[in-house]
Amino acid sequence: MAADEKARAKGEQAKGKVKKVVGAAVGNESLKAKGQAEESKGDLRAAKEKAKDAIKPK
Questions:
Q1: pLDDT of 29-50, one tens digit each?
Q2: Any residues with CB less than 8 A from the CB of 34 and at least 6 apart, and which?
């Protein structure tokens, strides 16, 4: 399950980055903002997974 969530986080980060860059390139502020939001969502998901791994008993 954790690997699935980590992969999902990486996917959201990548999609967000692409949208942000394309939005900036074409001057579409809405697309740029959506990309930033999606990238941030992926960052938060990745941070959550790192925190879960850190507290998981070894």
A1: 999 999 999 999 999 999 999 9
A2: 19, 23
Percent of the residues in the chain that have a pLDDT greater than 70, as a whole number: 97
**What distance in Å separates the CA atoms of residue 48 and residue 23, rounded to the nearest whole number?**
28
What's the burial of 37, exposed, middle or buried (CB within 10 Å: 0-12/13-18/19+)?
Answer: middle
Q: Give yes or no for a contact between 38 and 12, defined as CB atoms under 8 angstroms apart.
A: yes
- What lies within 8 Å, CB to CB, of 48 at 6+ separation is 5
